[in-house]
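TL;DR need structure tokens for one chain.
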Amino acid sequence: MESKLNHQAIDAYAKAYAKQVCQSFFYQTSHITGKEILEISKFKQTNLIVLKNLFRKWKKENAKLQSPYFDYHSEEVKKAMKDFMNSLSRHISIKKEHFEPLLRESVKDSILLVFSPYDFFSKEINQRDDSRISLNDLKDLKKYIKINDFLLDGLIDRFKFHKMDMAFNDEAFDLFNEVCSQAEEQPEDVQPYLQAFSEELPLSLSDIYLESDTERSEIEAPKTITEGSLNDKLRHTEQLTLAERLSKGSGKNIKQQLTLNQRFMFVNELFEGNQKQFLNAIEQIDSMDNYKEAYVYIKKEYAEKYDWNLEAEEVQEFFDLVGKRFA
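>> reply
TL;DR here they are.
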């Protein structure tokens, strides 16, 4: 449930989006410039990500420069290469057949940034060819990211706090998970961005997320929480063997276990968008002594209030986290 993105549908949408935009733009021209890239899509974040991906490709090409005769690592050569890059950036000229796949890739990245920022930044961290990411890499990325950028700010701050100029991907990923688990800010509302994408090509949440078997069954036969179903859930949890309970987690508090995707899902689907109430709920649960106490609290304060369907995957995932808390 935590990762329910429909990657196949997202890829199809990005392909159709890029094709439509390119057909319109290249109708009477053969090349697109850097200035025109900044205006190519009505969704400005996509345009910035196009530039990000373009310059990343250039850096990869530049990194391949090797010679037994010249020192490409000398400071003078590095400065010259930087000046060269700055000059190139003012003379971007790309044909349609090269730009369309670049735009398609950037639309997919934009969708991830809006609808699953955890996946977007994880991808940014892990796709480095040399298995390392630098503070300068993060600062460069900052230039292009204007949505959910508090996560990137948090990672940059972690690098600075630990006085790290460079980190291996897995180390940076651990730091990023710390940022996500401790972040107080809520990912941005997706509705304005749905509308922004749809100005070019209609997009809905059903295009982005997979429909689970549970959700389909609820459409056919809606279910509601009952005293019996909650008691069944409680008895099931209490009857777990020691091995089963240990396999579920290490007893870390809920806030430590939460991923950003889960927080986003729980806040919007279980707490009607009220992040303050969600954070208050997990703080209260984390302060409790056992699962039974937490169960009574959840039932009284939230399950009945918000009319949770216990069979829904997001509710089960929430209870799983609570179970891990007391494992």
